[in-house]
Each structure stands twice: as C-alpha cells, then as structure tokens.
C-alpha cells in the first residue's frame, strides 16, 4: 500500500514538473530569445526602425481599426438577428457560422481574387470592369468576413447567460422588440462586444496572409515581417517588426483581460430560457437584411471555391474539368497524411496538457500552475509569426538544434493552441462538483485515481470538443510554423499558400476543399464516437435499472 502510494506520488510530481518545464521551455523561452535578439543584436534598434517605418505602423493600425469597426457591425447584426429566430432555425444559423471555422484563414482572399480580381468572374466577366482589387479595401473586406463568424459565435454564446426573467418582465409590461434590444440586450452584451472588438483588432494586426495575397503595394507590419525572413533573410528586422506589433497588442490584451473577466462572471445565478423576440421593428428587419447579405457572401465564397476546384477557364468561358484535381496531386502526394498525423497529435496532446494545467490550477489551486496558465496565453496574444520566429531563435542552435524536424513543428502547434484550449478546459472542469474529488480521497484514492475515475470521465465532452478544435486549428494554421518547416515537410495550408502566390487558384481551391472535408470528417467521427459511448452507457444503465 505504501509502495503504491509512493509510486502515485512520484508519477504525479513527474507529470507536474513536465508540464511546468514544457510551458517554460516551449513558450516563455522562445519569447525571451526573440526579445533579446530584437534589443541586443543588429545594427539598429526598435526606435530607429519605428522612426524610419512609421507609415507601416500607421497602415497596420488603420486596417486593424476599420476591420474592427466593420466586423463589429456584422457581428452585432448577426447576434441581434439570432434573437428573433426559432430554436430550429437558430441551430441552422449557428451551424452556418461554425462551418466557416474549418477552412484555411485565407480562403476568403482566394474567393475574392476569383470573383473581383482583374479577370474576376463578377468584375471582368459580368460587369466588364477593369477593377484593381488589391489594396487596403480588399484586406479590410476579407478580414471583416473572416473574423465575423467567430466573434458572432462568442456573442451568441453570451445570449445563453442573459437572465430571461428580465426580458419576460419587460415584454409583459408592453416593451417592444426594438426597446428590448436597445435598452436591455445590447447593454448586457457590452463586455462581450468589447472583447470581440479587441480580438478582431489583435487578429488583424497579426494577419500577414491576407495583406500578402491581396495587399498589392499596400504594406503593413505583419506582411513586412514575413517578407523580411522569406525574401530578405533578415531575421533581426523581422524580430523588430514583430516586437512593434506586440506593443499595441499588449495594450489591447490588458483591456481585453479586464472585460473578459466580466464576461466570465456574468452567468451566475440567472434564469435560463429562450430569448426569441417577436419579429417586428427596425432591429428585426435591419439585422435580418444584413445577416442575409453576410450569409450570401459566405455562400458565394464557398461556392466559388468549389466551382474553381472543378472548372477551367478557356477563352473567357468556364468549362467543367477534373484538371485542377489532377494538377493538385503533385503538390499534396506526401502531404495529406503528414498534415492529418500532425493535427491528431497536436489536438490530443494539446487537449491533455490544457486539462492537466486546469486541474492543478482550478482543482488543486496551485499558484505556480496559475502562473503557467497565464504564460500559456502568450501565443494567443502575440502574432503567430512572432511565436514562429521565437522557435527559430530558440531551437536552431545549441543546446536545442531541432528546427526543421517534425517534432518541433508538432510542439509549436501544441503550445500555440494552449490559450484557447485552457479556456475551454476551464469551462468544462468548473462544472464538476468538488465533492467528487473529496470522495476519492476519503476512499483512500490518490491523484491518479482522481484522473481515472472522476476528472477525465466527467470532462470528456469538453475534452472531445477541445480535441476537435485543436485538430482544426492545426489543419488550418500557418503563421507560427511557416518559418519552421523545410520545403520537403510542408503541410496542406503552406502548400495552399504557396500555390495562391503563384496564381494557381484552381489547385489552391482543391486543397481548400480537401482541408474542409478532412476537418468535417474527423470532427464528425469524434462527435459520433462520443455520442455512441454516451448512448451505450445510457442503454446499459437503463437495462440495469429495468432488472
């Protein structure tokens, strides 16, 4: 008995120390290295760089600000429209938004070029216009559409936390739909609105793919950081650019952290129920129209990608053809399996790591692990290229010469998703009654027994969702790994990014469709397995009760 207790204790401490060491080595250490490089190496520092490139910073802030405002306009319209829908239509509405989460981040740019480019289907073929799609207007439009879905899902999730008794009371006193939305819903959503606005701002600053593809001669800091490494080989300049991006991102993060706590604390002790409002008033008609336009753009975007994958254009006319699919084979012959394996490993290990961090932080109340959890938010806060550059500095020489290996790529995507995964894990773990843990110890169990009998069985639904998110995030990531992968070890998103830059839009569309299909199939399989296990247990429980 004592030997078994000692083994459990040693195993727990080994796991605990491995988690702490892993986060410090693979998150904090790369950031320390790149900050050191930016401040101590090279012939010029950040102040000299900023003074000579202030226009780049202004461009980045300009695009990020307008993208935030435009995205917020669509997000509020989508959220308000959701209030007026029946529960059945709400599910379809939410599925439509979720579907956009499984596509690569620059699919919108690909569709934009196909539809509105110099030889675009709408501008050139239908309207006979000579339109230049490249520039800040294209970046803002595509970032707005890309960011709106996730932000709308965040606000729609907050609607479930609103106390429905207040809404019912207002309606029983004769309040119209417009008054309920203006005087109650929007004020209650204000912390969430600020959070999604700040998220949009940070994501826009960090986005280098969209400006690279459709920015044309309009330069921003994120795309300049990418070209500094890829075209110029100037890693010091890239470090300074990314450090410049960090300054506004850090300010925004502190504001975000304040309002995010308000969002998290808003749902306690409230009556839950449907918020469906009467379909009347300016807010209903206005939000319905804008939401319809948004969904039309989404449908047009994905129809364009699918059609582009199975057609060719000759003499100004489109013809059905399998040529794009045939042309794609040479680009992805050895890439598909590698991408899926990377994503499965990153999804599972990242979910496991995040749940263990939350266990020690939230269940065991470890102060050290709370600090580790905070460090884990850094990859989410700072640009993905900044995280990738940190790995380039930290693991390309002694004592860790790992750059170019599959291991360092998988490690990077595991720790890149840690911030979101720990938040999802925290929400799942908070629903487990602490009494269960006490019962295990009262019966003579140890930490490993807690994990086996209580913690993971009672949080497996959240674990499955976190695993799915980690898988999809890895399948669609590009920023943090673009500097780490050798040419012969590319994943699907990097191959797609390369062929878009070469103008091979048909091949890029095929790869985009393939990524979306893989994500949907794997997510469906995981959800199916989870539901089958639940049904099987319910069936066994029913039979036992019947006996």
TrEMBL record:
<keyword id="KW-0812">Transmembrane</keyword>
<protein>
    <submittedName>
        <fullName>Iron ABC transporter permease</fullName>
    </submittedName>
</protein>
<feature type="transmembrane region" description="Helical">
    <location>
        <begin position="505"/>
        <end position="530"/>
    </location>
</feature>
<feature type="transmembrane region" description="Helical">
    <location>
        <begin position="137"/>
        <end position="159"/>
    </location>
</feature>
<keyword id="KW-0813">Transport</keyword>
<feature type="transmembrane region" description="Helical">
    <location>
        <begin position="180"/>
        <end position="202"/>
    </location>
</feature>
<keyword id="KW-0472">Membrane</keyword>
<feature type="transmembrane region" description="Helical">
    <location>
        <begin position="340"/>
        <end position="360"/>
    </location>
</feature>
<feature type="transmembrane region" description="Helical">
    <location>
        <begin position="238"/>
        <end position="256"/>
    </location>
</feature>
<dbReference type="InterPro" id="IPR000515">
    <property type="entry name" value="MetI-like"/>
</dbReference>
<feature type="transmembrane region" description="Helical">
    <location>
        <begin position="12"/>
        <end position="32"/>
    </location>
</feature>
<feature type="transmembrane region" description="Helical">
    <location>
        <begin position="282"/>
        <end position="305"/>
    </location>
</feature>
<comment type="similarity">
    <text>Belongs to the binding-protein-dependent transport system permease family.</text>
</comment>
<dbReference type="Pfam" id="PF00528">
    <property type="entry name" value="BPD_transp_1"/>
</dbReference>
<feature type="transmembrane region" description="Helical">
    <location>
        <begin position="61"/>
        <end position="85"/>
    </location>
</feature>
<feature type="transmembrane region" description="Helical">
    <location>
        <begin position="97"/>
        <end position="117"/>
    </location>
</feature>
<keyword id="KW-1133">Transmembrane helix</keyword>
<feature type="domain" description="ABC transmembrane type-1">
    <location>
        <begin position="332"/>
        <end position="526"/>
    </location>
</feature>
<feature type="domain" description="ABC transmembrane type-1">
    <location>
        <begin position="57"/>
        <end position="256"/>
    </location>
</feature>
<feature type="transmembrane region" description="Helical">
    <location>
        <begin position="462"/>
        <end position="485"/>
    </location>
</feature>
<feature type="transmembrane region" description="Helical">
    <location>
        <begin position="372"/>
        <end position="394"/>
    </location>
</feature>
